[in-house]
Write a structure and sequence with these properties.
By secondary structure, this protein is an alpha/beta fold. The protein is built from 9 helices and 15 strands. The strands form 3 sheets. The protein has a 6-stranded antiparallel beta sheet, with helices on one face. A 6-stranded mixed beta sheet has the order 8-12-13-3-14-15, with helices on both faces. A 3-stranded antiparallel beta sheet has the order 9-10-11.
């Protein structure tokens, strides 16, 4: 797992350090304080070079959480709007003369420290990968990639993925023979599920995932799209994590589309998956109920969970406070505002 995060000259952050990081980190704070920006920063830090293939990496970076990407035909249409409406806004106060630096530090093998720096040189964005030293804020960069490749990163935005894409992911899970494991995690959210099947019905154009939830004598399968929002959302996410073997998961607005009584079971399922598969999670929330549900879900594994509270600070612009299990207990008991 990564232990600390350093960000300089990126979006709302002139300079910020966040430590210690936990296995599951729930980022809270008011509007426009930089919650989603932290997720973006982590994604950038985990890329060897996010600008090497504009037709793939660039559009992905823009569409991570903000729907900023513009569809255009590579090599035939230039994307000037992308530069003015996305890339320049990554720089603190839109000052493109600055250099953005984003670093993740880890004391755990086989992960190595990650550092990505990028700047505008003329009209061209250039990036360099390097290594973060043991003290945050002291770093070096070069055009040489780090000795260990990126551990892989999965993102879950507020908008849901296509059920057809989810079906293909589940099919890949079947190929690597992890179907039962996938069902185990989903059962923590919906205990009725006993089996999943990837099916393309006669006369239908696309395949879908169907679930056995024990309906009636014939145990008719139902489309996964008709399961609860928590189950449907986590189905594709778990399948992606299992097939891509990502080590970092980024979730924007965790509670989006979830009923309040589903948030706790979803956290329980994600926590078990993270422990079983050595995944580190960063998620944002606006919801007190989401924080309380996560706190309860991790009560038996308190060392895994923390809330990162972002708030304006006169001295440094935005400050980060890491609240562990004991801190969150006090905040909940005293009805302190921690969203």
């Amino acid at each position: 797992m990564y232990d600390s995060l350093f960000i300089a000259n990126f979006r709302a952050f002139e300079k910020i350090e966040i430590a210690p990081l936990h296995r599951v980190n729930l980022i809270a704070g008011g509007n426009n304080v930089g919650k989603t920006s932290v997720l973006e920063a982590i994604w950038f830090a985990l890329q060897d070079n996010p600008f090497t293939a504009p037709e793939t990496h660039t559009s992905r970076a823009q569409a991570l959480f903000r729907r900023s990407a513009i569809n255009y035909a590579p090599h035939t249409q230039s994307p000037p709007d992308d530069t003015d409406n996305f890339w320049k806004w990554l720089f603190f106060q839109k000052d493109t003369s600055r250099q953005i630096s984003i670093g993740l530090s880890s004391s755990a093998a086989p992960l190595n420290d990650r550092l990505l720096t990028f700047r505008f040189e003329g009209a061209q964005l250039n990036a360099a990968a390097g290594k973060v030293h043991s003290v945050l804020g002291q770093h070096s960069s070069s055009s040489v990639k780090p000795p260990v490749s990126s551990p892989g990163c999965i993102t879950l935005a507020t908008f849901h993925s296509s059920p057809v894409i989810d079906a293909e992911r589940v099919n890949t899970v079947s190929v690597i023979n992890r179907d039962d494991e996938l069902v185990t995690y989903l059962k923590l959210i919906d205990p009725r599920i006993s089996k999943l099947k990837y099916l393309k019905l006669p006369g239908h154009q696309h395949p879908y995932v169907y679930a056995d939830v024990g309906l009636g004598k014939g145990k008719e399968l139902i489309p996964a799209t008709q399961l609860g929002q928590g189950t449907a959302r986590m189905l594709g996410l778990f399948a992606s994590l299992m097939t891509e073997r990502a080590r970092v998961l980024l979730i924007d607005e965790f509670e989006n589309g979830l009923q309040h009584d589903a948030i706790g079971p979803v956290w329980s399922a994600l926590g078990k998956f993270a422990r079983d598969n050595d995944v580190q999670i960063f998620a944002t929330t606006h919801s007190y109920e989401c924080i309380a549900a996560a706190h309860e879900a991790f009560s038996d594994n308190a060392e895994d969970f923390a809330v990162i509270k972002l708030r304006p600070d006169p001295a440094q612009g935005i400050a980060a406070f890491v609240l562990d299990h004991a801190n969150i207990d006090v905040a909940i008991e005293t009805e302190m505002e921690i969203r």
